[in-house]
């Protein structure tokens, strides 16, 4: 069920002022794949994700989506094309209710009846959100906000979902739930690019993986093979 290349990043460079955080990164994601991007703090994973989704300008290289360069396109232009990111730290609208946040996720759509059906679907995936549907998002726990952020992103019916450290700061039970949902979303045919500190869990559910270090991709391959690679285990799995 793996299709053609959907997202192709080549020679990507991103800087903050004079400091280069991403120094020429190449990777690709095929249709129907779940690809995990791992690496230690400050390796440039978040910067890469932001550049791909149009929230940071790129200094060099190219980003192709569906066979065309999307360089310079803004975040919401890309949401319209099905390329959607759930940012690190969630980014939910804290002063809106759960339901309003989910409705906002569907702002590119005008099929009211189907939007209502999809909100129901999110409440089925995340029963906690249904229980709290009229509560302000800012009053929810970190794990609940992560669920809401994922639900909101899914409301746009993305082709590719980019998740930036969805398990960060969550309790073990919440981490399990989030990984379960990521697997389900992928099983339903959404292509997923997952950035995670939790390398073993991230590689455990992925088809392929990439390791980033100091702004560069230093390793890549089949996720299961990477999981058993002594170098990966030593550096990222605490062995
Ligand atoms: P983390 O898991 O900690 O988020 P990361 O791999 O996602 O790590 P980035 O957040 O992309 O790493 O950071 C890459 C480098 O860019 C780091 O050295 C960081 O200090 C730097 N950096 C990130 N954001 C900014 C910014 N807004 N201004 C200046 N430097 C930044």
Explain what this protein looks like in three dimensions:
- The chain has 239 residues and is α/β, with parallel strands linked by helices.
- A hairpin with a 2-residue loop joins strand 1 (5-16) and strand 2 (19-30).
- The strands form 2 sheets. Strands 6-7-8-3-9-10 form a 6-stranded mixed β-sheet, with helices on both faces.
- The model has no long low-confidence stretch (mean pLDDT 93).
- The protein has helices spanning 45-52, 75-80, 98-105, 112-125, 127-131, 142-154, 172-187, 199-205, 223-227, 230-236; strands spanning 5-16, 19-30, 34-38, 60-65, 68-69, 83-86, 160-164, 191-196, 208-213, 216-222.
- Adenosine-5'-triphosphate (ATP) is lined by residues 16, 19, 21, 39, 41-47, 197.
- InterPro entries: AAA+_ATPase, ABC_branched_ATPase_LivF/BraG, ABC_transporter-like_ATP-bd, ABC_transporter-like_CS, BCAA_Transport_ATP-bd_LivF, P-loop_NTPase.
Q: Could you give a quick summary of the protein structure above?
A:
It comes from Rhodoferax ferrireducens. The chain is an alpha/beta fold and 239 residues long.
Topology diagram in text:
Elements: E1 5-16, E2 19-30, E3 34-38, H1 45-52, E4 60-65, E5 68-69, H2 75-80, E6 83-86, H3 98-105, H4 112-125, H5 127-131, H6 142-154, E7 160-164, H7 172-187, E8 191-196, H8 199-205, E9 208-213, E10 216-222, H9 223-227, H10 230-236
Helix pairs in contact: 3-6
Bound molecules: adenosine-5'-triphosphate.
Adenosine-5'-triphosphate is lined by residues 16, 19, 21, 39, 41-47, 197.
